[in-house]
Amino acid sequence: MNKLSTLLFLHVIMSLPAWAQQPVFTHQDTLRGSIGYGRQNWDVTYYNITVEPDFNTKTIHGKNTIRFTNKGVHIMQIDLQEPMQMDSINYRNQPLTYNRDGNAFFIQLPNLNNDLRKVFTDSITIYFSGKPKEARNAPWDGGWIWKKDNDGNPWMTVACQGLGASVWYPCKDTQSDEPDEGASLTIIAPDTLVAVGNGRLMATKNVNGQKKSFTWVVVNPINNYNIVPYIGKYSHWGEIYKGRKGNLTMDYWVLNYNVEKAKSHFKDAGRMMKAFEYWMGPYPFYEDGYKLVEAPHLGMEHQSAIAYGNHFKNGYLGRDLSGTGEGLKWDFIIVHESGHEWFGNNITSKDIADMWIHEGFTNYSETLFTDYYYGTAAGNAYNIGCRKNIQNDKPIIGPYGVNKEGSGDMYYKASAMIHTLRQVINNDKKFRKILVGLNKIFYHKTITTDDITAFLYHSVKHKFDVIPFLKQYLTTTDIPILEYKIENNILYYRFTHCMDGFQVPLKLKDSKIWIYPTTEPKEMKWKSGNPLLEIDPNFYIQIKKVQ
């Protein structure tokens, strides 16, 4: 089967179960989640955003100049969520009109001369204003965050993953089209405060006497929801990390009264970088640096500017999500949110239905961190302990084309699936090569589950068929059951509660013996006097003895 045929085949088998469980969606869901006529024929290359918030009125205003590759576009869909407004649109020094359809604006571009190249660089500037949706429980609900620090100073930022960046600025709000050449964010704030953004600080200017502008620039592709302003009474320090691609700047921004405790606690950032560069390859954004920025919410994986709000505690707000004690040895937010720099930011899913690519691998990075510093047994214990958080309520992969995530099991269940795959590979050097390979092959790319499946298929095909394995865990809620019985020193076994073709080699507990169950009955000689079949608990399956 050629590559194209393989990908088409994978698309069919992976997509149908998600669609089968799709509820009814609205016209707005389709506009937001699909690539319709207003999103075709143009690709974003650069965002140049300016924003000025007003803390007292909870309003913002600004502009976004969108540079794009024009492939013959006549209608542009630009997303900006209600109640935000577009004040004006400028194209080649001419104002443009538009039609609004809910959260989507359809802009008519004038016909261009026939002698222009079919594909060329173009730009449009959009001025916007309004009172953006306020996040009441960030980062879970999303929106602009208006808080005060302990000294009463304004403290502002945004968290909008899932909800979308169009909650506060006009953009092509789809994960499938990142600005290939990066983005610039200029934040205008009171001169008593400091504004932090993604990438590197390129300019500061005094504005109208009592304000200051801060211009931050990223040179790498960045997804829309990762572009973020932080505004507060920040203090700063930094260090140089000698990484796998040379010197990496690691900068820290915290509220001025938290500097001393943060300097001690943020040592996990360097430890994180060392472990993750080992397991997953070089940090993907050396050019833009790495930052931890204290935020008035729990945390978020904003590219090169990780939001931190774990109150300088180990674990998840002082709790161990695994219940084993291993999760209290490190700061969950530093480790997890930074893990997204590899899976989520470097590798980004085109559709949020495939968000398991972000969350499953990043959740597994917690296991890898634990393994790196505290040993494989500790990492295994942490991963197995986290399984209690699996719900198996609905498929991990959501419905495509409607901006809808799948189950929250994209975290722990997907991680358990990856951990199982690691056991099958049974060679950490090869497993590490897969993780590094994913970040190399899909470097700064937007991808699908099919892309991951094709990569893994070719990486582990000598072990077993990974296609039904992934399909089982990602598109169903059934955990495969290994049924067995022992009669006359013969072990009879097979998988049930799984789709046809499912298979996964299994290692016996505390043994070097492997069995190779499928959905077809198998048998093997068994030791006399041992009435039970025990499987290594690192494999995420269920076991049932039958008569």
Walkthrough of the structure:
This protein has 547 residues and is of the alpha+beta class. The chain folds into three domains: 3-23 and 340-475, Neutral Protease, domain 2; 37-222, tricorn interacting facor f3 domain (Immunoglobulin-like); 481-545, no CATH class. Helices cover 24% and strands 30% of the residues. It contains eleven helices and 28 strands. The protein has helices at 3-20, 27-33, 259-265, 267-280, 332-339, 356-374, 376-385, 412-425, 428-441, 449-460, 466-475; strands at 42-54, 59-70, 75-79, 85-91, 94-95, 98-101, 104-108, 120-130, 143-148, 154-159, 183-190, 194-196, 200-207, 211-218, 230-232, 234-243, 246-255, 290-294, 299-300, 306-308, 347-349, 445-447, 481-487, 490-496, 506-507, 514-515, 522-525, 542-545. Strands 5-4-8-2-1-11-14-13 form an eight-stranded mixed sheet, with no helix packed on it. Strands 16-17-18-20-19 form a five-stranded mixed sheet, with helices on one face. The chain has a four-stranded mixed sheet with strand order 27-24-23-28, with no helix packed on it. α5 crosses α6.
What layout of secondary structure does this protein have?
Layout: H1 3-20, H2 27-33, E1 42-54, E2 59-70, E3 75-79, E4 85-91, E5 94-95, E6 98-101, E7 104-108, E8 120-130, E9 143-148, E10 154-159, E11 183-190, E12 194-196, E13 200-207, E14 211-218, E15 230-232, E16 234-243, E17 246-255, H3 259-265, H4 267-280, E18 290-294, E19 299-300, E20 306-308, H5 332-339, E21 347-349, H6 356-374, H7 376-385, H8 412-425, H9 428-441, E22 445-447, H10 449-460, H11 466-475, E23 481-487, E24 490-496, E25 506-507, E26 514-515, E27 522-525, E28 542-545
